[in-house]
Specification:
diphosphomevalonate decarboxylase activity, alpha+beta, Alpha-Beta Plaits, Ribosomal Protein S5, domain 2, six-stranded mixed sheet, 19 strands, binds ligand DP6, 20% strand, 2 domains
Length: 450
């Protein structure tokens, strides 16, 4: 075997948002949950992780780079995933390159992993789900692991619980399982992304300076100290899971919305019931909830569902495009951008995703266009919703009328700058292999980051 070769695989994996939440483990090492959960996979065009993995006899140890920075792989979660994958690796042959790797060689060979998120990491959006799912999916392809997605989900689960749900597109259920070894704690797809294609998802990235408690330690503290969590896991979630599956199957938005909102609120209630209490939502999060609740009540039937993970960002799921348009108008009315933010003039061209911007030197760009703060672009992702809403510039926002549900009350208050930006997206597909060499994050000859 020539010692020079590098064999590489690149894949892209979506992130997901739970509508029935996972919170609490019964086994910390294997990452086994105390209840089932259900999520919606988000369109990877707007939020995803891209990972390149490479193997070469020239590599001296396993290495990983996240968003261009080398990180340690010594943590138990990485080690568990790597061990599980190596144990399932098979023979690999690349005739073109003259490479042959026997099953037993994988124990000795080392891998390089480079991972990149197409959304700003500072946004506080769950990146570990897409990250671990992508690591497991791409390494499984590289190592010719002949397991189906549900078996791979059980490996991704050991990296981060929510990662197991990112192995599929559409609507996904993580079955908690009963076995002590976790073999039946797997994710399954309930419906693909086309099943309920009308849904539109708008994420409000809420400005926050607060250092948040990580999900891992937060849920540990909840299990140790909350009395409510047991009632939630044993009595409430099992019923909600059945109802949510029905709602998804029947496209029953009112039920979907009521369940998702109640479950998000209960998750934050058990956080508050933790000692010391954990506050993930802030005043802006609460204002967004009030806005949606008021509007849904005014309409007599839910237009939008809200859900919040372990942070203040709101994930808003609109029934259809019309509801999304009305939602965006309301959000921009209550939460207008800081005046120096332009809506579209300086934003990323819609045909260029963040991926292409990873190598851009923002400081030099700022000096070319002094006003061009790329990430201050206020509505990103699927900008066509902005068109639907008839909002093209700051003047259009200033001209937005107060929503009818507040008209007769005292003048509606506005909260300028309390939302950093919005991401418009939709339910999306599961992991895919990328065959485009320009998307590779490792050099095909050296196996080092590009
Ligand atoms: C609030 O999957 O991040 O997003 O398993 O410890 O890595 P670990 O936790 P993580 O927890 C996610 C919690 C949540 C709800 C959910 O995604 O279901």
């Amino acid at each position: 075997m020539a010692e020079k070769w590098v064999l590489m695989v690149t894949a892209q994996t979506p992130t997901n948002i739970a509508v029935i939440k996972y919170w609490g483990k019964r086994d910390e090492n294997l990452i086994l949950p105390i209840n089932d959960s259900i999520s919606v996979t988000l369109d990877p065009q707007h939020l995803c992780t891209t990972t390149s993995v490479a193997v070469s006899p020239a590599f001296t140890h396993d290495r990983m780079w996240l968003n261009g920075k080398e990180i340690s792989l010594s943590g138990g979660r990485y080690q568990n995933c790597l061990r599980e994958l190596r144990a399932r690796a098979s023979d690999v042959e690349d005739e073109e390159k003259g490479i042959k790797i026997a099953k037993k060689d994988w124990e000795k060979l080392h891998v390089h992993i480079a991972s990149y998120n197409n959304f700003p990491t500072a946004a506080g959006l769950a990146s570990s789900a897409a990250g671990f799912a992508c690591l497991v999916f791409s390494l499984a392809k590289l190592m010719n692991v002949k397991e189906d997605h549900s078996k791979l989900s059980a490996i991704a689960r050991q990296g981060s619980g929510s990662a197991c749900r990112s192995l599929y597109g559409g609507f996904v259920k993580w079955i908690m399982g009963k076995e002590e070894n976790g073999s039946d704690s797997i994710a399954v797809q309930l419906a693909d992304e086309k099943h309920w294609g009308d849904l539109v998802i708008i994420i409000a990235v809420v400005s926050s300076r607060q250092k948040e408690t990580s999900s891992t330690s937060g849920m540990r503290e909840t299990v140790e100290t909350s009395m409510l969590i047991e009632h939630r896991a044993k009595e409430v979630v099992p019923r909600r899971i059945i109802q949510m599956e029905e709602a998804i199957k029947d496209h029953d938005f009112p039920s979907f919305s009521r369940l998702a909102c109640s479950d998000s609120n209960q998750f934050h209630a058990v956080c508050l019931d933790t000692s010391p209490p954990i506050f993930y939502m802030n005043d802006t999060s609460h204002r967004i909830i009030s806005c949606i609740e008021k509007w849904n009540r005014f309409e007599g039937t839910p237009q939008v569902a809200y859900t919040f993970d372990a942070g203040p960002n709101a994930v808003l799921i609109a029934h259809n495009r019309n509801a999304a348009k009305l939602l965006l108008q309301r959000l921009l009315f209550y939460f207008p951008p800081q005046s120096d933010t332009d809506l579209s003039r300086y934003s990323l061209p819609s045909h260029v995703d963040f991926y292409c911007w990873k190598s851009v030197n923002f400081n030099s760009l700022k000096s070319i266009f002094p006003l061009c703060l790329l990430f201050s672009s206020y509505v990103i992702g699927d900008k066509s919703i902005l068109e639907d809403a008839g909002v093209h510039n700051m003047k259009d926002i200033e001209a937005l009328a107060a929503p009818p549900e507040v008209k007769d009350n005292t003048p509606a208050q506005k909260y300028k700058g309390d939302v950093s930006y919005f991401i418009c997206t939709r339910p999306g597909k599961g992991p895919v292999l990328l065959n485009d060499e320009t998307k590779e994050l490792l050099n095909a000859e050296t196996g080092l980051p590009n």
